[in-house]
Amino acid sequence: MLLPDFINRTEKGLYCAIGNFYIDPEQAVETALISHAHGDHACRDNSNIYCTPETAAIMQLRYKKGAGKNFYTKTYREQFELNGVKITLISAGHILGSAQILMEYRGIKYLYTGDYKLQTDPTCEILEFTEADVLITETTFANPAIVHPDPIAEIQKLNTHNQNVLLGTYSLGKAQRLIRMINDHCPKRKVLVHHQILPISKLHEDFGVVLGNYEPYNRKLMKEPEQGYVYLVPPLTFNSYFRANNVCRAFASGWQRLQAQNDLELLISDHVDWNDILKMIAEVKPREIWTVHGNGSHLKKYFQDQLPIKSLN
């Protein structure tokens, strides 16, 4: 029998009382299942953390002593059990080490996606589909009006500009994807990266991810516009350079609001869009959908009486 309260939201985040664990908790807890290492999913100082080896390594790199007490790393499709709940991590295609969390209890399967994407990305494992009775999905872009453009066509926009480019990006996942995309699709461009992006990129390579050519930022190089440099910087640095001269400003994101006042629009997202979510639902074949991280109202209207949909926000 499907349990409507198998997962509940508490002040510390999503909690499974039967298994006595939290999923991507917002505050430090005793036992945490972590889908991936972005800060809004992986908080500091948990006592017992279950995640992929890649996620553990990224958390330890970023949080140092605050990463957590005990890490229990699990590879994709390796099953383990917590208090009678069978758990399997399945690739989510979002960033390096990202995982969907499949939980099975008394024959019922509950699938928590974390953040996920369906687009091809050589810097992380491709998303794997699996069937479940309940799909717990992110709804960041769950709106019929939002359809992500082809990411290759977006990155190739860099080929149409002669100026050096100041490219805003998130340091974990998106930056490494952009390094590889620029190497693959903008062969005349040269990649410079901010010092905050360097260690995370090196960690990707330690796990066998091929990024291509890049080098640390050098102010002298960025003053040579004929060389075609693309300088990847995190959001705070990007915002602080709002008066940067003789460069083309761009920010790689699926959020349209982050494209405002830039010289070039780069709509490259690491989340599913409306069509991707519908594809995910078709593949998972759930009996119910529970939504997190966004607004599920459009899904509720779309499916009406076909599928029960509730929010865990």
Molecular structure report:
It is globular and about 65 Å long. The protein has 313 residues and is α/β, with parallel strands linked by helices. The strands form three sheets. A seven-stranded mixed β-sheet has the order 7-8-9-10-11-18-19, covered by helices on one side. The chain contains eight helices and 19 strands. The longest helix is centred in the middle third of the chain and has 12 residues, at 174-185. The protein folds into two domains: 8-144 and 271-311, Ribonuclease Z/Hydroxyacylglutathione hydrolase-like (Metallo-beta-lactamase, Chain A, 4-Layer Sandwich), CATH 3.60.15.10; 151-266, Rossmann fold. A hairpin with a 2-residue loop joins strand 7 and strand 8 (85-91). It has helices at residues 53-63, 151-155, 174-185, 198-206, 219-222, 235-240, 274-284, 297-303; strands at 8-10, 13-16, 21-23, 31-33, 48-51, 70-73, 79-82, 85-91, 99-105, 108-112, 134-139, 164-168, 190-193, 215-216, 229-233, 247-252, 264-266, 288-294, 309-311.
Write a short abstract of this structure.
By secondary structure, the protein is α/β, with parallel strands linked by helices.
Provide keyphrases for this structure.
single chain, 313 residues, alpha/beta, Metallo-beta-lactamase, Chain A, Rossmann fold, 2 domains, 7-stranded mixed β-sheet, 6-stranded mixed β-sheet, 21% helix
The name of the CATH superfamily of the largest domain reads Ribonuclease Z/Hydroxyacylglutathione hydrolase-like
Helix and strand element order: EEEEEHEEEEEEHEHEHEHEHEEHEHE
What is the helix content? 10-25%
End-to-end C-alpha gap: 24 Å
CATH architecture of the largest domain: 4-Layer Sandwich
| Poorly predicted tracts of residues | none
What's the story with the biggest beta sheet? 7 strands, mixed
Helix-strand category: alpha/beta
Overall mean confidence score, pLDDT:
95
Oligomerization: single chain
Number of discrete helical segments: 8
CATH class of the largest domain: Alpha Beta
Radius of gyration: 20 Å
Strand content: 25-35%
Overall geometric form: globular
